DNA sequence: ATGCCCGTGACACACGGA
């Protein structure tokens, strides 16, 4: 079973790229982030014509998350991260698919830092930490996939020294990610590529993709049940080079059946 | 230190992104 995550940076602006990628790689489940579309503007017909069911939580202009599934029913569990009634951002959606809980998340960016946006990010991380711990108590396979907006280590940044004050790489943000993983999660990409440089994002500026000046910020965290089922993982890097691409590339894992 | 390049919303440029 192949599961992917892709920050599309505008689901309607990205639709030709998204459909081509779905057609060429046929993932079973896809977590999308940054739809940048209100609920009623999600391109459901095109997604269905491509062979997928979908649930999504849109928002005008910003944020927005979706889960697509080909073949397996989607049973939605929630469409917001618990813990803050006043958080209006569409950044989390969760479902049961094929006997697994799949959480699709878009963690806040946090810049400029320090400041209220970084505080929001760290607060969101605390809520994710609490919810992730709760999920682990249920003894069911769980995947937390999405754009975490964190480079976990120096290996995940083309020039670490330039990013130390940035909200994607500040020590407290890396620590929040590490604390989450230390609950017992497996960082799937790093498990498959323990020492390799592997990026999921390249800025639109400065020919970042051409220079491979990238970041690894899209992650799969696997609950203990799934660690032994992890067969492979990767980044569809070439998609970043397509015309009208997102600044992120699709990232995926392959799991064995049971 | 800053802009670079994008999508969105709405019609010019502001905003957010990472």
UniProtKB/TrEMBL annotation:
The keyword Magnesium applies. Residues 4-248 form the Endonuclease/exonuclease/phosphatase domain. The keyword Zinc does not apply. Its cofactor is Mg(2+); Mn(2+). InterPro entries: AP_endonuc_1 (IPR004808), AP_endonuclease_F1_BS (IPR020847), AP_endonuclease_F1_CS (IPR020848), Endo/exonu/phosph_ase_sf (IPR036691), Endo/exonuclease/phosphatase (IPR005135), ExoIII-like (IPR037493). Keywords: Hydrolase, Magnesium, Metal-binding. Gene3D superfamilies: Endonuclease/exonuclease/phosphatase (3.60.10.10). Transmembrane segments: none annotated. GO terms for molecular function: double-stranded DNA 3'-5' DNA exonuclease activity. Belongs to the DNA repair enzymes AP/ExoA family. This is Exodeoxyribonuclease III. The gene is xthA.
């Amino acid at each position: 079973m192949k599961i992917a995550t892709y920050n599309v940076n505008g689901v309607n602006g990205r639709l030709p790229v998204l459909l081509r990628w779905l057609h060429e790689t046929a993932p079973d489940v896809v977590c999308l982030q940054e739809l940048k579309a209100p609920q009623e503007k999600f391109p459901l017909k095109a997604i269905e014509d491509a062979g997928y069911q979908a649930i999504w939580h849109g928002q005008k202009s910003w944020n927005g998350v979706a889960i697509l599934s080909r073949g397996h029913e989607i049973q939605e569990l929630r469409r917001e991260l618990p813990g803050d009634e006043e958080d209006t951002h569409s950044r989390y959606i969760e479902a049961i698919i094929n006997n697994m809980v799949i959480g699709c998340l878009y963690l806040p960016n946090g810049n400029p830092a320090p400041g209220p946006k970084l505080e929001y990010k760290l607060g969101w991380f605390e809520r994710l930490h609490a919810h992730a711990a709760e999920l682990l108590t249920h003894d069911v396979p769980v995947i937390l996939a999405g754009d975490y907006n964190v480079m976990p280590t120096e290996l995940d940044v083309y020039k670490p020294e330039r990013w130390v004050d940035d909200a994607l790489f500040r020590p407290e943000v890396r620590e929040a990610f590490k604390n989450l993983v230390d609950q017992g999660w497996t960082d799937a990409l790093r498990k498959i590529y323990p020492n390799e440089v592997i990026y999921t994002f390249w800025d639109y500026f400065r020919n970042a993709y051409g220079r491979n000046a990238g970041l690894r910020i899209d992650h799969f965290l696997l609950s203990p049940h799934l660690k032994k089922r992890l067969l492979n993982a990767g980044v569809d890097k070439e998609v970043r080079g397509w015309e009208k691409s997102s600044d992120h590339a699709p990232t995926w894992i392959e799991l064995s059946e049971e």
